[in-house]
Amino acid sequence: MLSTSLVGLASLATLSSAACTRELLVDAANKWVFLQSSGDHSDFDNLSYNLTYLENNKTASIISGLPAWPQVIAFNRSVYDTTLCKTFTEIIVTDPAHPYVIATQMYLGAEGNVEKIDSLVTDKGDWAFNATGYYYWNSLEKWDPIPPEKRMSRDALKAVADTYPDRCNNKSVVVPFNTPCARLEGGAYTGRGNLSANTCDIGGLPEHVLMSNRRYVIDEEMGTVDIFLGFQGLDRTRPNEGTPDSHFFRIEEGKIKYIHTVSACFVDGCGMNGTGIPPLRVA
Ligand SMILES: *[C@@H]1O[C@H](CO)[C@@H](O)[C@H](O)[C@H]1NC(C)=O
Ligand SMILES: *[C@@H]1O[C@H](CO)[C@@H](O)[C@H](O)[C@H]1NC(C)=O
Ligand SMILES: *[C@@H]1O[C@H](CO)[C@@H](O)[C@H](O)[C@H]1NC(C)=O
Ligand SMILES: *[C@@H]1O[C@H](CO)[C@@H](O)[C@H](O)[C@H]1NC(C)=O
Ligand SMILES: *[C@@H]1O[C@H](CO)[C@@H](O)[C@H](O)[C@H]1NC(C)=O
Ligand SMILES: *[C@@H]1O[C@H](CO)[C@@H](O)[C@H](O)[C@H]1NC(C)=O
Ligand SMILES: *[C@@H]1O[C@H](CO)[C@@H](O)[C@H](O)[C@H]1NC(C)=O
Ligand SMILES: *[C@@H]1O[C@H](CO)[C@@H](O)[C@H](O)[C@H]1NC(C)=O
């Protein structure tokens, strides 16, 4: 929690309620990315006095957590939910000294200031972590805006995205996978073969795993749904608890084309006791 005495947080509680525009969200997300690159929050003038900053689902501070440490950002991507007034951002840091993959949801309040930053900061020891792989496979994907005539409603996007976490606890749920389709998980990619013919229908999805506490960022223009959720038992040291996780879906014409996941293990290696990347499949 930030104290109100912090210089530079010139948030104006007296501003009248502003409609949540895409421009406002773009501005906030850009400031977030800049903050992570500079390590200095003083240019982020749209932070609320009572900002809540969560790092891997734990209360932390932007003045001592990762945002305080400038990073060379190899790639960033943001999407915007004007209905919930939220943003979602992917940041990839490939610096060999300390690579990271960061997934962040931000919540803006009625005055247009960021009130909550919910960030998953993953690095070595997290599920299938490989920032170089995340960067490489991501660079082969196409995430252009959806042409206006092909855009889906937010309800339709949410329904498609929810089939995937629902399926993990109910194998009767049918997930509409596109062909091609690929899942980028920590840095490992399911689409290693023919990139124009891949499918995500490759089995290996769990059958009795609850994906709980879902928090959404839905962008109709980008055809995306990001879901922050608790992935039950992904970290084997806490089998009955949700591991902090982001599932980011790109949906085209009703079908899932890409899935990017980021999972912050409670302990390095997620309790798998392996020396390398934890296996991709969850039994
Ligand atoms: C907040 O964001 C808006 C829109 O980008 C901007 O006009 C305003 O000056 C910013 N700063 C404060 C302190 O509200
Ligand atoms: C922060 O302050 C705003 C405006 O007073 C309020 O609406 C919001 O609920 C507060 N958020 C938290 C997390 O306390
Ligand atoms: C974030 O990505 C945008 C678009 O690719 C790029 O122009 C910008 O420089 C990036 N920001 C940082 C801090 O790397
Ligand atoms: C990470 O991904 C890159 C790109 O696919 C690959 O060359 C490298 O071997 C991977 N590293 C590990 C440790 O798997
Ligand atoms: C499992 O999914 C099927 C198909 O969507 C649905 O009919 C059924 O009610 C679901 N079962 C539970 C327990 O939710
Ligand atoms: C990849 O798959 C597509 C679609 O099935 C096919 O047209 C193409 O020839 C394949 N390419 C290779 C290199 O196998
Ligand atoms: C995060 O924290 C909240 C509140 O403390 C809790 O309800 C939730 O289950 C936690 N885990 C995840 C992954 O959201
Ligand atoms: C990992 O090792 C611990 C301690 O030896 C053991 O209790 C646990 O069952 C092991 N977990 C797995 C997934 O092998």
UniProtKB/TrEMBL annotation:
Q: Ranges for the DUF8021 domain? A: 150-262
Q: Which organism is it from?
A: Clohesyomyces aquaticus
Q: InterPro entries under this entry? A: DUF8021
Signal peptide span per the entry?
1-18
From what superkingdom does this record's organism come?
A: Eukaryota
Q: Which UniProt keywords apply?
A: Signal
- This one is known as DUF8021 domain-containing protein
Quick check: keyword Signal in the entry?
A: yes
